[in-house]
Amino acid sequence: MKSILLFALFLSFGLSLGQSKNLTDPDPITLPLHKKYINTIVFLDKSIAPDQLKESDFLKAMEFQEDKDLGIRIFMDNALINYLHQIDPSLSADELLKKGNYQFNFFVDGKLIYTENLNTGAGIAEDKKTKTTLRIPLSSSKNEDSWGRYLWMRFYLGNGGIDALEEGKHVLKIEIKPYLKTPSLKVGNTIASGEINLSIPRKNIPQHQVAIQKIQPNSGWKVSDEKPDQEKIKLLNTKIAENRLREITSIIVIKNEKLVLEEYFNQSGRDSLQDTRSVGKSFASALMGIAIKDGHIKSENQMLKDFYDLKQFKNYSSGKDSVTIKSLLTMSSGFDGNDQDESSPGNEENMYPTDNWVKFTLGLSTTENKPGKVWNYFTSGVVVTGDILDKNVPKGLEKYADKKLFQPLGITHYKWQFTPQQKPSLAGGLRMKSLDFAKFGQLYKNNGVWNGKNIIDKNWVKKSFTNYFTNDPDSEGYGYLFWRKIYKVGNRNFEAYQCSGNGGNKIIMFTEIPVVIVITAKAYNKSYAHVQSEKIVQEYLLPALGYK
């Protein structure tokens, strides 16, 4: 009897082990090539259905061209969800897919260049439950829309791939694993790996595209006698000319209030009005500070209810009564809006089609988060700060900004983006010359003083350049519509506050060194946009100025 009980327990235990091994039934592996190349990544230059694929289609080597097709097919022995289940058998299928996905590792010549834990939203959920083979395009002549292409761009253009794959012969290896974040990161065993020999052809760049551009007269700035490291700047210009740094339109460097470097690229020039997108948000902060200094607004601690009858708008709650101007400036108002979440009701893309952006914003629900506590990038809130300014400054925001900010800085050519009510939009889109953006940066570097005149109160500058979110592990900090950023060169850290806009646009003001940098670019909605601008600063500009 005892032996029968033991056998029953063993059988039960064995069944439970068998049940926990797989959470779902993956597609059966029937194709001979799949069986032969299990746990392997193969490279292809065309899209071929698995049942039509032949071994002769596999690429062992190729001359790499960015505009040609290159993709991979992954042969696995299980579906992703079952790999995730092996990492944490306690989680349900839905929980696994919300917390995990593939981890991609890119190696060049045996050196790990980039690791990415693929966003959990990438890929089709049903495929993750059943598929044992996947085709992923990396580069595509047809601009195929795929998370694989964006992954490749992040590796290639944003995280060192293009530098590792310089002219010559290289071995590219890709390795994938499953990962879970619960909340600590757990990574499983290798699912598949594969490699290809790549030949990178030489690019012939005309010498004039490499040469440092001479600063022409009448810049509006004193020109510095100090010269940056010539070889560093030539190398930077080479990278831009080779399209290794993309869609850069200008680079301006100011040191000790003098112009050190002025360069333009990609059909841009000194008189071009650069579209810097959300860089314009920081001008909202400046204008609010000026309006408070002039007494048109009492303080940034004033509440929305001082300016609007909030009960007239949709979704009224008492939480809206405590929303302050400061919480709008620090992106922590508590409104249900997050531009980094496509499903957020207050995402800016939901605002733009409406006929009244202020009404849209004030009609949003509020969350449980009290104002000032939780940071979420919220463009619509900045639109409301513009509306408050427009209603409370003499002759409206457009004329006030010109009189109080632009004229004192000598900025005469600029172009606003407007709301549907034809008011200046402080959401972004303010266009001006690169040298004029540098004036704005130097104004803040000078604690609000320009040519001996106090334009912005120095205490407002101090408040603007304060990090209000020191406990957020995913952020380096945020002030009054200015980003805090640490630039690293060797073992040295350089703190900066910066205006930042889609495409890689920056006005960078360093807090401890006498440097202001402007970078304008048109890499809009590209995953590498901000990464390459930061790379320009860290690897080229700061070292060229002697900060190593």
Question: What does this 3D model show about the protein?
Answer:
- This protein is of the alpha+beta class.
- 30% of the residues lie in helices and 22% in strands.
- Strands 2, 4, 5, 7, 8 and 9 form a six-stranded mixed β-sheet that branches.
- α10 (281-293) runs parallel beside α14 (379-392).
What brief labels describe this structure?
548 residues; alpha+beta; six-stranded mixed β-sheet; six-stranded antiparallel β-sheet; 18 helices; 30% helix; 22% strand
Shape: globular
- Mind describing the biggest β-sheet? 6 strands, mixed
What is the number of E strands?
A: 20
Terminus-to-terminus distance:
79 Å
The assigned structural class equals: alpha+beta
Low-confidence stretches: 1-20
Question: How are the SSEs placed, and which strands pair?
Answer:
Blueprint: H1 2-21, H2 32-36, E1 40-44, E2 61-63, E3 70-75, H3 80-87, H4 93-99, E4 100-108, E5 111-117, H5 125-130, E6 133-139, H6 147-158, H7 161-164, E7 168-181, E8 185-187, E9 192-200, H8 207-210, H9 230-241, E10 248-255, E11 258-264, E12 274-275, H10 281-293, H11 325-329, H12 348-351, H13 357-362, H14 379-392, H15 396-406, E13 414-415, E14 431-432, H16 434-445, E15 449-450, E16 453-454, H17 458-464, E17 483-489, E18 492-501, E19 505-510, E20 515-521, H18 529-544
Parallel strand pairs: 2-9
Antiparallel strand pairs: 1-3, 3-6, 4-5, 4-7, 7-8, 7-9, 10-11, 10-20, 12-14, 13-14, 15-16, 17-18, 18-19, 19-20
